[in-house]
Fold these 3 entries.
Entry 1:
Amino acid sequence: MNLRRLDLNLLVVFEALVAEASVSRAARRLHLTQPALSHALARLRVAFGDPILVRQGRTMHATPRALVALPEVRVLLAQVGRLFTSGGRFDAALAERTIHIGVSDYAALAVLPKVLPRIRREAPSLRFVMHHAGRHDAPALIRSGAMDLALGVFGHMTADISVQTVLEEPYLCATWRGAKRRARPGIADYLAAEHLNVLVRGDSLGLIDEALARRGETRRIVVTVPHFITAAALLRGTGMWLTAPQGLLRRFAREFEMATFRPPLELPLFRTQLAWSRQREDDEGLAWLRARLLAGREGVGAV
């Protein structure tokens, strides 16, 4: 590839095409005609030596090579944007950029409604794509550039990733209101109960089970789901117990007919955290966004 012949605008087109997996949706996002996007896709296929998008049935799918290249292209576009935007300085009012954020469903619910209106007012041309990510896959996604930031429960990260607490709150337990249980359950009741667990990756221990393991104890998990709100909805009509952050259970107690009570064991606080790559701390746009996201501290269970 002769770099002097490469049009950097093709990287913008590549990102939109692979992210949307659709020529028409990418054209709408970039405010271009569909024939113009089809022509750009043809040029990209020549440059990459890869079809980029392939049809499977009635839908288009990105090729494996395109998916591997996508995080690297996003990093390059971010670097170019920093170089040329306002002489290298970030101006929220003028910035046009797509930011990818890894989130758990509860982190998005607890933090984003408090801060997104202000972000949209101050930076109306920023675009956000949210991806479901947990503490096991978020570090690799942040390192690769597939995610610019992540919101969730991460604990201690490696030295190349910074973590800052946005919210912290206690755990509560919940059961369906129609379920039978003792008024003041003890640890023996907790260990004997059937539990509904929330874990993005089901083959690992969550924070609650790590705390129990340190005591030499285990609980009976009968259902594991990747989303907190799904877990709360699944309690109805069962005898299962759910241990989850206080804010979630209080918010949905009436809607999902839940009775809440304090866990009969000591658990660490549930911390919603913001994580990002130390290698990108000079990115003024991401630094600006981190400051706005950390403004969510004024919410429930503020640090």
Note: The CA atoms of residues 165 and 180 lie 37 Å apart.
Entry 2:
Amino acid sequence: MNTLYKISIGFVLTIGSLNIQAQQAPMYTHYMNNTLVVNPAYAGSRDALTVTAINRMQWVDFEGAPVTQSLTMHSPLSNEHMGIGLSVLNDKIGPTNTTSLVFDYAYRFNLNEKSKMAFGLSVGANLFQANLSALELDVQNDPVFLNNINNHVTPNIGFGAYYSRERFYAGFSIPNLLETSYSEIDQGNGTSLIGKEQRHYFFIAGALFHVTENLDFKPTSYVKMTVGAPVEADLTASFIIQKRFLLGAMFRTGDAVGGLIGFDITDQLHLGYSYDWSFGLQTFRYNKGSHELVLRYDFLLNNKQIHSPRYF
């Protein structure tokens, strides 16, 4: 097995050794446009039927690198206190592939004239596959890699809380409360766990500051925590020019730096692109950076005028 693919397997397989624990959640540079994926309490918060698609190609030219697509849609209900959402995710890393389908429900209420609070629940399922037999191994007949994992379905539920004002938001969520196992092996004297889904904890926050009439400053943050792995934080600083153009820079602890651009083509349609360059874990030697594309559209409900611009 060549050196590059050894490194790839080391990163992508959380099932590659006994009792291993690591960050498993997909990575997004446009996390601020993909809030529903990590926090069900966000459902319906834009007061429109919002559809968002993201495609991420991570570590270009790195063998077995992650490729992730997500499609989310959410909307308020006729009862203004309720919102619903749907998320579809496909995440491919090396020989593994995870497809998720999640339904979200949020209950929102006013704390005062300027701020709202929402609590959300999600329920869904993950379809996990791993073509382990296709790998070339240094150690033959390793019991961990002898059998493929085919169409392994695991249920999950999640919880989130989301606080928002016109120019500030903050949230906490646990999208996967259940820690279900991927696979197990029989070692003769008992069954041994190879790998399982790890519970992740997410913290998000963002704000908007008016600098001049045609310039706004938008800092955002995204923190991921799980047992047995370092805390990872994305810190992003963006400038919004003339209410339509976005230009920003990001820093991901221990991993990457990068830039974002975005454009509100209309009051309802947003297009964005980001590039980030890895500097951690020695991966920068073997890849040409990560590309991400986001497209979002707000469908108006009952001829209601959308509040423009919407910053969160």
Note: Residues 3-299 form a domain with the Porin fold (CATH 2.40.160.40).
Entry 3:
Amino acid sequence: MARRPTSDSRSEAEKAFKAVTTKPAELPPKAPALPHVKHTVTLRVDQDVLDYFQQDGIGWQDRMNAALRKAAGK
């Protein structure tokens, strides 16, 4: 009389089978980062922070970018 495999050994066998027969998804190559390319993002900041950068008028986004760059150690 043949012995039936336990559910643990069956799931282990299925896992091993899938590991060797499943082809991993190929991701497209990551594009190299281009220097000085700006990206549009949505960022939530407190009103007083926004007021601080906007108080000197035009160029506030560049000033905020410079402050973030400095905070990032760049």
Note: The mean pLDDT is 86.
